[in-house]
């Protein structure tokens, strides 16, 4: 009887040296400049001075390449070690430090992806799993600590509250055309998030 070993999805070979990083950097730049819809594997290959065959050996689809690129981009880091001791301080750190809403790179990348996320299933799945998931985990920890400290009322919908700051900032940036400045972020935190966190019983 022949034994068949169980195996997960085959890992595509990495590109040697610094070439992979150069390709990913070129991809991020194109997403930020032209958007996902206008990005092509040819354009990335040309910008990175690589062959299209090299790209396809590593990434089978445009969605895989783009999400890999933005997930590892130096300008869009996953927040690390955010714990200032208060919900307000944590939210300011998340929103205003490197990789936050006041940074040009992550906001440009977000703008480049918005039109495609709602209609490209492959992009949406990869974006949620590889880009959003680790960042949402950090935000979840911030709100969990706030609950433990008693900063959030017992009757507050924490999941909805946690999505409010990015929702308001993204609406201002991409619908109203209002730059996401630190002042705007502080207004949302102080006049929307923190009052809502206390809950109706605190009114």
UniProtKB/TrEMBL annotation:
Could you cite one Gene Ontology molecular function of this protein?
DNA-binding transcription factor activity
Q: Give the HTH tetR-type domain ranges.
A: 17-77
The cross-references to InterPro entries, in alphabetical order and at most eight, read: DNA-bd_HTH_TetR-type_CS (IPR023772), Homeodomain-like_sf (IPR009057), HTH-type_TetR-like_transc_reg (IPR050109), HTH_TetR (IPR001647), Tet_transcr_reg_TetR-rel_C_sf (IPR036271), TetR_C (IPR011075)
Q: Which residues bind DNA?
A: 40-59
The organism's superkingdom is given as: Bacteria
The chain's coiled-coil residues are: none
Instruction: Give yes or no: UniProt keyword Transcription.
Output: yes
Pfam families in UniProt: TetR_C_11, TetR_N
Sorted alphabetically, the keyword list is:
DNA-binding, Transcription, Transcription regulation
Q: What is this protein called?
A: Transcriptional regulator, TetR family
Which organism is this entry from?
Answer: Kribbella flavida (strain DSM 17836 / JCM 10339 / NBRC 14399)
């Amino acid at each position: 009887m022949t034994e068949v070993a169980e195996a997960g999805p085959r890992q595509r070979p990495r590109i040697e040296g610094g070439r992979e990083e150069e390709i990913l950097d070129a991809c991020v730049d194109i997403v930020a400049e032209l958007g996902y819809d206008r990005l092509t594997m040819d354009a990335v290959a040309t910008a990175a001075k690589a062959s299209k065959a090299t790209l396809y050996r590593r990434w089978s689809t445009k969605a895989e390449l783009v999400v890999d690129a933005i997930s590892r981009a130096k300008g869009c880091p996953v927040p690390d070690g955010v714990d200032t001791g208060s919900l307000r301080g944590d939210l300011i750190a998340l929103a205003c430090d490197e990789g936050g809403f006041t940074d040009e790179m992550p906001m440009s990348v977000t703008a480049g992806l918005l039109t495609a996320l709602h209609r490209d299933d492959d992009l949406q799945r990869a974006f949620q799993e590889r880009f959003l998931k680790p960042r949402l985990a950090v935000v979840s920890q911030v709100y969990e600590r706030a609950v433990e400290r008693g900063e959030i009322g017992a009757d507050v919908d924490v999941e909805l509250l946690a999505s409010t700051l990015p929702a308001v900032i993204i609406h201002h940036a991409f619908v109203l055309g209002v730059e996401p400045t630190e002042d705007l972020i502080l207004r949302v935190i102080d006049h929307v998030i923190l009052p809502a966190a206390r809950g109706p019983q605190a009114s």
